[in-house]
């Protein structure tokens, strides 16, 4: 049985050995809504597909044209088994309802580190995805950059009160870092960006070090709303 939930995922779940992120371009706000409804319908009328899938969450991009998928798998092998047995029938049915979806690729990650206040009761009103790309594969550089970000965050003299948590993931190919950040609202994040300094953070040496890291190729920031959560019933 598949059950819908409004609860946001636990990004620190130790069982999630293979967290995956993917993106679809659907084009318009109407098609965003239609696609979310189609995904929900297709999944809810089928049994939960795999013991190795802990949860599947869908997010509406604030650009009104894209959707982000976040799935928590116990292992890549569990995902590959799902692809062989259950994925295509679901994709075909969704495409029948909303034709022309552009699938932009699957990113395979591992959770590395998180920062959050213990016992924080706030429910995220906005998910901010910060996608960092480096100029080549280097797992040591991935970890070192995240460590530097967390060092800058911990020394931040003026942290914005709207930030709830940050969850850093390393791509398995060694080229990217993805920060899944939870914020009270999109406006809180925009206010933080508009504060003094270059992006989130004050104009300190530690933040400058993060922003000018050797080999840092690009930084992309996107905002999303949690649209659908699916878990085993």
Automatic annotation (TrEMBL):
Residue stretches in coiled coil: none
Origin species: Streptomyces doebereineriae
Residue ranges constituting the ABM domain according to the UniProt record: 50-86, 128-195
Superkingdom as given in the UniProt entry: Bacteria
Sequence intervals crossing the membrane: none
GO molecular function, one term: monooxygenase activity
Pfam families: ABM
Protein's name in the database: Antibiotic biosynthesis monooxygenase
Keyword Lipid metabolism listed: no
């Amino acid at each position: 049985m598949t059950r819908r939930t409004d609860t946001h995922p636990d990004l620190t779940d130790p069982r999630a050995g293979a967290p995956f992120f993917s993106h679809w371009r659907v084009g318009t706000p109407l098609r965003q809504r239609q696609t979310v409804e189609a995904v929900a319908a297709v999944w809810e009328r089928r049994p939960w597909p795999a013991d190795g899938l802990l949860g599947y969450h869908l997010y509406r991009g604030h650009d009104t044209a894209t959707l982000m998928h976040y799935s928590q798998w116990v292992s890549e092998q569990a995902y590959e088994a799902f692809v062989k047995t259950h994925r295509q029938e679901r994709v075909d049915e969704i495409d029948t309802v909303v034709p022309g979806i552009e699938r932009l690729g699957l990113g395979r990650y591992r959770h590395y580190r998180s920062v959050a206040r213990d016992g924080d009761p706030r429910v995220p009103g906005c998910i901010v995805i910060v996608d960092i790309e480096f100029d080549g594969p280097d797992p040591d550089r991935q970890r070192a950059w995240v460590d530097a970000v967390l060092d800058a965050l911990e020394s931040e003299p003026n942290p914005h009160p709207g930030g709830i948590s940050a969850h850093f993931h390393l791509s398995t190919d060694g080229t990217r870092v993805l920060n899944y950040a939870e914020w009270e609202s999109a406006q809180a994040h925009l206010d933080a960006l508009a504060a003094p300094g270059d992006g989130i953070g004050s104009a300190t040496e530690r933040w400058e070090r993060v922003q000018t890291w050797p080999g840092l190729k690009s930084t992309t920031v996107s905002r999303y709303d949690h649209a659908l959560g699916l878990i085993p019933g």
